[in-house]
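The authors assume throughout that readers already know how a fold can be written as discrete tokens. For illustration, here is how one protein appears when written out as sequence plus structure tokens.
>
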Amino acid sequence: MSDGEERRLTRIALMVIAGLVAVTIAVTVITAGPAGVRTSAAAPRAGTVGQTQAASFQSPIASSTANVGDKLVEYAENTEPASPSTTDRLLADAGISSQTSTESGLALDTSQAFTRATENGSLILRVPFVSTVNLLDISGYAVMFNPDGSIASRAEVVYQAQTEHSGRVALWQDGQLQLDQIVSDGSESTPVGTAQPAFNWNTLNKCLTSAGIAQWALVAIGVACGVICGATLGIGCAACVAAAGGIIGSTAGECVAKAMVS
């Protein structure tokens, strides 16, 4: 698949996901808030996140963007991949290694880290977690860097499956627990106005699910980033979307391609 074709399919995938998020955002919230946590993840620990600076970070996500799905599209379109050497440098600058303590207690897989750059020179480092049972690979840790190299913000998002149709989403920003909820599948109807001729939603859902991207996870992305994006449309929102940025890539594009021809 050519780079141009992959970018086109990725954009279509994210637009489709935006529709799914919009439909399923009327989610059944079974447990909400830190008091209702029903998992073994650790509570936030003091001292694990360095001092952050807002400085001049320019978010790749505009405050006028309508919803979280749109923000994922905008994030993908307004950032470009940075070199592996840049990623190595940022890992060192952020003090991140495979031994780094995270708020969730999960280990980081620094070998799979990558960086995206904004037009003004701000950098977004994303580090996935080491794979564990029930952990979705769209979980991740993100660090936002200002053009001068200072750290603007950090975010950590964890998506853990509990059943086939439900899971837990937990979000930390700059060391503070912002969200910890159990969510389940919402509406399973086709998003109005987004379907294309010969587009098979059933194929898409099956493909995303087999790739580890369940419908409840799409709901969870909307819930998690909706909390931050609704409160702070700049750095925090971009950090949340970046942490969930594992959904951006060839897997989503391939699923859309299958759904378009089936």
